[in-house]
Each structure stands twice: as structure tokens, then as C-alpha cells.
Design goal:
The structure holds 2 protein chains of 2 kinds.
Chain A: H1 17-29, H2 32-41, E1 51-55, H3 60-71, E2 75-79, H4 88-96, E3 100-102, H5 109-118, E4 130-133, H6 137-144, E5 155-158, H7 161-173, E6 180-182, H8 187-210, E7 218-222, H9 226-237, E8 241-245, H10 249-257, E9 261-262, H11 265-271, E10 274-277, H12 287-292, E11 297-301, H13 311-317, E12 319-324, E13 327-331, E14 337-341, H14 347-350, H15 357-376, E15 385-387, H16 390-399, H17 413-419
Parallel strand pairs in A: 1-2, 1-4, 2-3, 4-5, 5-6, 6-15, 7-8, 7-10, 8-9, 10-11, 11-14
Antiparallel strand pairs in A: 12-13, 13-14
Chain B: H1 2-8, H2 34-40, H3 43-46, H4 54-106, E1 118-123, E2 129-132, E3 146-153, E4 159-161, H5 165-182
The chains are: A alpha/beta, B alpha+beta.
InterPro entries (chain B): DUF2452
Pfam families (chain B): DUF2452 (PF10504)
Protein name (chain B): DUF2452 domain-containing protein
């Protein structure tokens, strides 16, 4: 592709930059981990020379991540990893600082790829040398369509469960050509962002879209992983009765012992009025379920990809009526209706503002550490899939304690010796599950 | 004695010859004399017939006046007819552009359109049209769908085709100027 006429950025409305900046300032106050990274690494600029192409929801929180990366010396180009998740004012504020960002809320699928492609090449004709990915679309695009760029890429860090599953698949097939860091499975990411983030943002999305009363309703959560746990807890706390669908016996037992009824979707379809998918798998809600549902049942997906709800079937077999952007009511052949949120894509980002800043600070501090590690210690990491060391995980958590007024207890020498750990950590063995 | 005196001053009892004028002078009736009468009124002029066809000419004048009135009225009405015709054209234009605006607003669009921005209309293979933020140039001249045109969304939610943007901006600019010159400047201190 030609780079001579490369756009400096493409956002919905650059005039929203000032508003975005104000919200970025607010977010910074809630993102102590990233601010600590700036203080600690800002002066030494460990990311100098790094050309990071990022593909991650272009939100206010991501804006703070981007500005942390640039403060650490990196050059950054950005696209969003979801066609609905961009917050236009955040993108505008970042574009105004001179960072090449290509993202707006409501891209088409083709434009989405266009946006990612814009981040591969630099205006001087050079290419990216680092990837920061969420979901694996950028990683896949480079591996399939631009393999000539792979030798120049030193590493990639992946944000989410779905992206990790993709990387594992690629590893197995021998297709992965770049050392990769699994940021998702840092404890301070998946056990926080996925759980506590969704616990607040799922209901935010459902409520902004439909204003539905949750108390007394029967809700189904398909998938009781970290995300599902957060969703179920949140729905229950509003007074909903929550059913869980699970394939994994261990997790099904967890759900049952938390007091949830665990059942199949076939059974749940006739009983529930709100359906949430959080599986990371495909074809969870299908035609037979839609047809069995009560009138005006609400369908929301909070898994990374839009493959959990069979939207294609609805599009061809039901009559669509758009209530407002990202809220569609379908009239089924049986005369009943279902209300689909965010076209079956991430409901918390499509219908609300995604996760709150504080929990994203945990995730993104891991991203920054992964990028520094891959960029500065490239030789230590041949092609493969790596985790951040537990010590760094603990550091990320530490950075967030003060903001919450946490008073941490210190081990005495005697106690430390008894447990057989160092007083400064790491406190748990690698196999510990938290 | 008193009766007698009263009788003496009654004028009707006096002869015309003794009619007192100014108390002392008196006027006499003289016999009619042709020459004197002729001097007072010219019978030649009084009895002259200027035009023996006066009535005809009056009728002609009335007819002419009717024609004038008709002509003037027609002239005046012509202006109105012209105006009606112009207004009809205007109305037609407005309805056409309203139809186009409505059609454009109904094109599929996933994002919130911002007035003042230019958007690009494409048609998918299945015939549905949609608005995009990307111009064909930004696609490197090779957009994935058929390009139909670029439009600017105005603040009144109407659409201006790309080719007419400059003209419309000029119009709006001069209207704005006129408004500004007609209105007292808000910068001026309020007394």
C-alpha cells in the first residue's frame, strides 16, 4: 500500500478533543498504575525506538495507556479492536497530540480493517516493530496479509482471552512468528478487568440501552468464567434471579455452589427474559432459542467477538426495527420480539463506556510492562507465548493499593521463614489460582 | 301720525324710479339693447358644436380606458403569474432536495453524523446504501463498495453535494454577513 498520502489520523470529530482531554485528566487520577509507570520509566525512556501499532478499544482509558507509552519513548499508531467501542472524544484528544489514530464509533467491517492497515506503516515509509493487540485481529492481519513485516516485529502483547486462544492455536500450528506476551493471564488483568470490570459495565450497557428493571427478572449468563462471574454477581445484586449455562464441570460446580441454578440454554430460553453470553465460544444463542423466548427478551453479548449470538439468522429471518444505534428489535416469524444490543458485539463497549478507568489501569500497566520487557530484552524471548513474572504482577497490584486506602500487612522475618517466601514476594507459587 | 311715518319708509310702496341706492343714488331699468348683450355672452362661442361625433368619441374613450385597464391589470397579473411560476419552481426544488435529504438520512449509518462534516455514500452489492467516513481517495481510489457521492451535512440537517459545497458556503457567508451588519454588534458595551 502507498504511504505517501497517509492520513495523519482519522477520527469522527476532531472538535471533541477538548472534551476528551478533560476526561483523560479525570481518568489519569483513577489510573495510578500507569501514572507510576510514567514516573518510574518516563525519564529513562526504555521504549525509545519502539514503533508500536496498537489495536485496542480506543477509549479514554486507552488514551492514558497511549500517552504512557509515548512518554516512555515509543512512537504509537492506533486503531480500535471493535467497530463500536471507540469513544470519539478520546480518539480526537489523542489525534490532537499528534498520535496517528484511526478509529471512530460505528465503523463498517471493511473500514475496520482499513483502520488497522493504517497503523502498519509510518509516514517515513518505515513499519511497525511492536504489536499491542486485543483480540488478535492485528496479529492475524500481519501474519496473513503482511507476512513481509513479521521479521521486523520484535514482539507482541495480547490483552484478552480470545486473543490468547488465537495465539495458542497459532503456536500449535507453528504459525506464530513473533514472541508474544500473554497479558490477559496476569492475575491483575483477568481476575480484575474481566471480573470487576464486567461486574460494573455489563449492567451499565443493558440499562443505557433499554432502561430495563432487573429486579425480579430471570437472567441467563452463558459462561461462568471470570467475565461470567462478574456478570452473574452484578445481575443478582440488582435482584435478578440468575441462571448459568456451563460446559466445564469444575466451573459449573463453582456456579452451583455460589447458589446459581445451572441449566442448559434450551431450558433457560423459555424462562428468562435477559440473555447474556460470556463464553468466548460461538453459536451460543441460536434460532431454536430465539423462537422459544418470551416476547421482548433482551440479548446481550459481552464475549470478545460477535459470534456468540446468531445475528445472521435474525437478519435473514426476522424483521429488524432499530430503536436507536446499537439497540435493534427483531420481530420473529412467530410474532414475538427479541431486543439485540450492540449487534451482538461487546455490550459494555457498544452500549456504555466500557470498563471504568481504575480496573483498566491494572490491565494496561501489565501491557506497558510487557512492551518494555519485549523491547528491551528481545533476546530473552524466542518465538513463543510468555507470561509476565509474578513479581511484576504483584507490583502492578501494589501500585493500585494506595488509591483505595489499602493498608498492607508486612510479614515478619519469622512469618516469612515459616511460609518459605521472601518478605517482598513473590508470595504465591506460579500454580496458585487466586 | 306715527302710522303715516311708518308707511313712508316701506320700500315696496316706492316706485322703481325712486328706488333708493345708497340712500341718495338711484338705478334705472333700461331697455334691452342687442349690442350690450352681445358683449357679455358670445353666442358664437356658446353655441358652437366642437365635434358633432362627441358621443362616439366618448364611447371610444371608454373602450380605450377599458383596454388600458385590462392591459395594466394583465401586466400586473403577469408579475404575479411569474412569481407563482417562480414559487412553484422553488417549491419543486425544495421538495426535491427534501426528498434527497430524507433519502440520505435513511441511508444506513453506524455512527452519529456531525453537522459540518463531509460523509461519503456507498452502495453495497445487495443494493443497500450506507454512509462512510472514508472517501474513495482515502481508500486509495479503490473502495470496497460502489461510491455514490460525497455530501456535507449542514447545520439544518440538509445535505449539500460535494460539488455545491463552495457555492453554498459562499451563500451562507453572505447571508451571515448581512445578518451581522443588520444586527448591533454583541461586542459593543451595553449602556
Amino acid at each position: 500500500m502507498s504511504t505517501s498520502n497517509k492520513l495523519p489520523y482519522k477520527v469522527a470529530n476532531i472538535d471533541e478533543a477538548d472534551f476528551g482531554r478533560k476526561e483523560i485528566v479525570l481518568a489519569e487520577a483513577e489510573m495510578p498504575g500507569l501514572i507510576m509507570m510514567r514516573k518510574k520509566y518516563g525519564p529513562s525512556k526504555p521504549l525509545k525506538g519502539a514503533r508500536i501499532a496498537g489495536c485496542l478499544h480506543m477509549t479514554i482509558q486507552t488514551a492514558v495507556l497511549i500517552e504512557t507509552l509515548t512518554e516512555l519513548g515509543a512512537e504509537v499508531q492506533w486503531s480500535s479492536c471493535n467497530i463500536f467501542s471507540t469513544q470519539n472524544h478520546a480518539a480526537a484528544a489523542i489525534a490532537k497530540t499528534g498520535v496517528a489514530v484511526y478509529a471512530w464509533k460505528g465503523e463498517t467491517d471493511e473500514e475496520y480493517i482499513w483502520c488497522i492497515e493504517q497503523t502498519l506503516f509510518w509516514p517515513d515509509g518505515g513499519q511497525l516493530n511492536m504489536i499491542l493487540d486485543d483480540g488478535g485481529d492485528l496479529t492475524n492481519l500481519v501474519h496473513t496479509k503482511y507476512p513481509q513485516l513479521l521479521p521486523g516485529i520484535k514482539g507482541l502483547s495480547e490483552e484478552t482471552t480470545t486473543g490468547i486462544a488465537n495465539l495458542v492455536k497459532m503456536m500449535k500450528k507453528g504459525e506464530l512468528k513473533v514472541p508474544a506476551f500473554n497479558v490477559n493471564n496476569s492475575v491483575t488483568k483477568s481476575k480484575f478487568d474481566n471480573l470487576y470490570g464486567c461486574r460494573e459495565s455489563l449492567v451499565d450497557g443493558i440499562k443505557r440501552a433499554t432502561d430495563i428493571m432487573l429486579a425480579g427478572k430471570v437472567c441467563v449468563v452463558a459462561g461462568y468464567g471470570d467475565v461470567g462471574k462478574g456478570c452473574a454477581q452484578s445481575l443478582r445484586s440488582f435482584g435478578a434471579r440468575v441462571l448459568i449455562c456451563e460446559v466445564d464441570p469444575i466451573i459449573a460446580l463453582q456456579a452451583a455452589m455460589e447458589g446459581y441454578e445451572v441449566t442448559t440454554m434450551e431450558d433457560a430460553a423459555t424462562r428468562a427474559s435477559i440473555f447474556v453470553t460470556a463464553t468466548g465460544c460461538m453459536n451460543i444463542l441460536r434460532s431454536e432459542h430465539f423462537m422459544a423466548m418470551k416476547d421482548n427478551s433482551i440479548l446481550a453479548n459481552i464475549g470478545h467477538f460477535d459470534i456468540e449470538v446468531d445475528v445472521a439468522w435474525l437478519e435473514t429471518n426476522a424483521k429488524k426495527d432499530t430503536i436507536k444505534p446499537q439497540v435493534d428489535r427483531y420481530e420473529l416469524p412467530n410474532g414475538r420480539h427479541v431486543i439485540l444490543l450492540a449487534e451482538g458485539r461487546l455490550v459494555n463497549l457498544g452500549c456504555a463506556m466500557g470498563h471504568p478507568s481504575f480496573v483498566m489501569s491494572n490491565s494496561f500497566t501489565n501491557q506497558v510492562l510487557a512492551q518494555i520487557e519485549l523491547w528491551t530484552n528481545t533476546d530473552k524471548y524466542p518465538v513463543g507465548l510468555y507470561y509476565l513474572p509474578k513479581k511484576l504482577d504483584e507490583e502492578v497490584a501494589s501500585a493500585h493499593l494506595e488509591h483505595l486506602g489499602v493498608r498492607l500487612t508486612t510479614l515478619s522475618d519469622q512469618q516469612a521463614e515459616y511460609l518459605g517466601v521472601s518478605k517482598e514476594g513473590p508470595f504465591k507459587p506460579d500454580y496458585y489460582r487466586y | 301720525m306715527a302710522e303715516r311715518e311708518n308707511k313712508e319708509i316701506l320700500p315696496f310702496e316706492k316706485t322703481p324710479e325712486s328706488l333708493l341706492l345708497g340712500g341718495s343714488a338711484s338705478a334705472k331699468i333700461v331697455p334691452r339693447e342687442e349690442t350690450v348683450t352681445q358683449q357679455l355672452v358670445s353666442p358664437r362661442l356658446v353655441h358652437k358644436h366642437y365635434d358633432p361625433h362627441d358621443l362616439v368619441s366618448l364611447a371610444a374613450q371608454v373602450q380605450q380606458a377599458d383596454e388600458f385597464v385590462q392591459a395594466t391589470t394583465t401586466g400586473k397579473l403577469q408579475v404575479v403569474v411569474d412569481q407563482i411560476r417562480y414559487l412553484q419552481e422553488q417549491a419543486h426544488k425544495i421538495l426535491l432536495s427534501a426528498k434527497r435529504d430524507a433519502q440520505l438520512h435513511h441511508a444506513a449509518c453506524n455512527f452519529v453524523k456531525v453537522p459540518g462534516k463531509i460523509y461519503h455514500l456507498y452502495e453495497k452489492k445487495n443494493g443497500t446504501s450506507y454512509f462512510s467516513m472514508l472517501s474513495p481517495e482515502e481508500w486509495g481510489g479503490n473502495p470496497p463498495n460502489t461510491f455514490l457521492g460525497s455530501y456535507k451535512l449542514e447545520f439544518d440537517r440538509s445535505w449539500t453535494p460535494l460539488a455545491e459545497i463552495n457555492e453554498r458556503e459562499k451563500d451562507i457567508g453572505s447571508i451571515h454577513k448581512a445578518i451581522m451588519s443588520a444586527m448591533p454588534s454583541s461586542d459593543e458595551p451595553q449602556s
